[in-house]
Automatic annotation (TrEMBL):
It comes from Amorphus orientalis. Coiled coil: none annotated. This is YggT family protein. InterPro entries: CCB3/YggT. Belongs to the YggT family. The chain crosses the membrane at residues 7-30, 71-92.
Length: 96
C-alpha cells in the first residue's frame, strides 16, 4: 500500500513540473523567444498542451475572464498540492 501511495505522489510531482513547463513554454511562445516554426519546438508545445489541457479546460470554464491573464495553472497547482497533502496526512499513516 505504501508503494502505491509513493507512486501516486511521484505522479503528482511529475504532473506539477509538466504544468510549470507548459506555463513557461507558453510565455516563451507568446513573446517570440522560441521559434514557432521549428519542428522540435512545435512537438514540445503540442505535447505539453495535450498533457495539460484536459485538466485546465474545466478550470478555465469556471474562472471568470481576466483579460489576457490565465490563472488556471495556478488553480490546478493549488488543487494538486491540496491532494498531495491530503494523501500524505490521511492515507500514508494508514499504510504504515
Amino acid at each position: 500500500m505504501l508503494s502505491l501511495i509513493q507512486v501516486l505522489l511521484l505522479a503528482i510531482k511529475i504532473y506539477t513540473w509538466i504544468i510549470i513547463a507548459s506555463a513557461i513554454f507558453s510565455w516563451l511562445y507568446a513573446f517570440n523567444v522560441v521559434n514557432p516554426r521549428n519542428q522540435f519546438i512545435s512537438m514540445i508545445g503540442n505535447a505539453l498542451y495535450s498533457l495539460t489541457e484536459p485538466a485546465l479546460r474545466p478550470i478555465r470554464s469556471i474562472l471568470p475572464d481576466l483579460g489576457g491573464i490565465d490563472i488556471s495553472p495556478i488553480v490546478l497547482l493549488l488543487i494538486l498540492f491540496f491532494v498531495q497533502q491530503l494523501i500524505v496526512n490521511n492515507l500514508a499513516p494508514l499504510a504504515l
